[in-house]
User: Which sequence fits this backbone?
């Protein structure tokens, strides 16, 4: 069993960058990946705020990318090497949806990072909560970041994924709402 969220974060960030690739070379790809990883990290830590949540995720599994692939139209492409796509089983649909919301809505991203900094996201597997500096490319992307993640941050393009679990994210970030497991 995994003691942290790294497999889910890595797989979900990879799914986002495959579904909404950067254009413009290696630097653009790296900047897009960093932004996706920061959004996915915030989303995962909000989704699985306690060590018990992480442990349950390790037992039940995150669900995989099948529905996301279908929504984005990537489900019809058969892999040449089925084992090469094994990482897709670690994609978490809710985390991908929440990350898409964070990438396209700066105010929601700021609320989410603030929730982690305030401790609402809780420490995950012994790690301290995130700070806004840790998520600079998510919260305050510069022009180069924006160009690198044009598709990833385009509200219309990611809307089908973002809308899947947007209401859950908003409810999770509502300070008047009690945390329900």
Assistant:
């Amino acid at each position: 069993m995994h003691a942290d969220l790294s497999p889910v974060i890595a797989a979900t960030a990879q799914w986002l960058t495959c579904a909404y690739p950067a254009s413009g070379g290696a630097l653009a790809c790296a900047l897009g990946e960093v932004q996706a990883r920061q959004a996915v990290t915030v989303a995962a830590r909000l989704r699985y705020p306690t060590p018990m949540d992480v442990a349950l995720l390790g037992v039940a599994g995150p669900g995989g990318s099948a529905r996301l692939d279908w929504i984005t139209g990537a489900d019809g492409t058969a892999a040449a090497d089925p084992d090469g796509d094994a990482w897709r089983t670690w994609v978490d649909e809710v985390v991908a949806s929440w990350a898409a919301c964070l990438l396209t809505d700066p105010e929601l991203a700021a609320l989410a990072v603030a929730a982690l900094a305030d401790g609402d996201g809780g420490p995950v597997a012994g790690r301290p909560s995130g700070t806004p500096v840790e998520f600079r490319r998510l919260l305050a992307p510069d022009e180069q970041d924006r160009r690198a993640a044009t598709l990833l941050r385009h509200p219309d393009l990611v809307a089908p994924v973002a809308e899947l679990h947007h209401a859950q994210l908003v409810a999770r970030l509502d300070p008047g709402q009690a945390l329900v497991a």
User: Anything to note?
Assistant: The chain has a mean pLDDT of 87. The radius of gyration is 15 Å. The longest helix spans residues 26-47. The chain is about 55% helix and 0% strand.
